[in-house]
From TrEMBL:
The keyword Cell inner membrane does not apply. The keyword Metal-binding does not apply. This is Starch-binding associating with outer membrane. Pfam families: SusD-like_2. Keywords: Signal. Residues 1-21 form the signal peptide. InterPro entries: SusD-like_2, TPR-like_helical_dom_sf. Transmembrane segments: none annotated.
Amino acid sequence: MRNKKYMFLLAGVLLTGSACKKFVDINQDPNNPTTAQLTLLLPSTEISMAGNMYQLNSGTSTIMQQTMWSTTISRYQQQGTDYANSWDGFYSQTLNDLESVITSGTASQQWGYVAIAKFEKAYLYSLMVDMWGDIPYSQAESGATTTSPPLEKGAEIYEKLLLMIDDGIADAGKITTTTLVPSTSDVFYAGTKASWLAMANSLKLKMYNQIRLVDPARSATAIKTLIAGPLISANATDFTFKFGSGQNPNNRHPWHRVEYQSSKTFYQNQFFMDLLFNNDDPRLRDFIYRQTATAGLNNSTNSNGYYGRNPGDGTAAPADLARRADFGVYPAGGLYDNAPINNLTGANLYLTNTGATATPKTIAVTDGTGAGIIPLITNAMVKFIRAEAALTLATGDDARANFSDGVTANLNSVSTFAVANNGVAIPAASITGTVAKLLAQYDAATAAGKLNLVMTQKYIATYGNGMETYNDYRRTGLPVLRDLLSPLSTFPLRLYYSQTELSANTSFGANASAIQVAQQITPVFWDK
């Protein structure tokens, strides 16, 4: 499998601050855990969660026309192996270990560990419901007694997860210090209590917005309470997984590993590149790296180097590995594109050639840091969620201000990240100018046009997290995507289950194949 090597390498080695620590056998005596074991087990759950996202993130980013990992997925055709590593890894590694942290931490009254584990478990299970709909839940981590856990309704799981988040907040309240766990035991927030509480409330905000079509009144009431805070409100407290720059062991972003350190797998999606280019978006230089200055669609030599594939293009790949546009500095930790773009016009005010003095080059294995990120829940996302809720649920929040703050937050985040990874800052005038341009469009738009602007800018700002853009599209139908060249099926409303699960879990019964096929056309419970 193209990503299995990555997953198992990452699961054991990627720790910030204490990357060289060796994991002990946490299963030596599960009925009598030690605090030391919890200090190793909790970060291993965070690492395995991110590591197991590779297939899921790449596939949904392909469906949502931000990149192209698989031509068949780009054409909306699914297989039981597409997300098998993600599904299997979540259950066999991440969730199994989270259950151990919660059980062991509760027994030893290590409430900080329990709180974080509950927040992480709620995040991951809610994401899995969003992706697959009905999934094993209550009996999923009872392998000794239940080898074939039944599917449970996604709506019922959501309710349990919302309660779990509240339980985690209560557990965190039992800790009187500012840190829930030692800094080396938490990859995300170094144990900082305030950051985890902001993440927990932001997760609730996301979930209530997700279900707003099911019960608008309930969502509006909950969101009105949540916007009083605390929420993720600064880029410094984003719920973001940070990869490393190490080579031995290799703990780099998986997209960097696949594209920069081995033979290439991806094309960049022509729709996404065109969206940024045609809208004078300065983030294009951060998101995409061009290996040539003139390559174009269909391997032409008279374009601008943004050579990718249109969504739904099922033709065989030519010999073009050295010509494809590729992942840039953000979010994969690749190269920053500081080469001139040959067909910019005077209308370009923010995506310009000012200071662009580099020459495109064929990517080498030593290029880029690989210290990329997966933006799971960010300050920008929270602001866009608040804007969407204000426009659709009348929460009393300021949709325009949140829209402005969301765009600003992402532009600043991308700029800061680029500088930290050998890139170039987005000029302050380009940030303020881009925001002002979008606000002028917002002010002139109808109600539907305002929501379109919010969701399109969230789509751009969420680059690197295909799961959330997939959620947003099914909930809103936005942004407007490009028609596929040669679709093989309809837009997938759920993802296919792991073929391993279908084969091994007898609770699917004789209808396993029919259940799998139905995934394509069956909406998730919140998709009305």
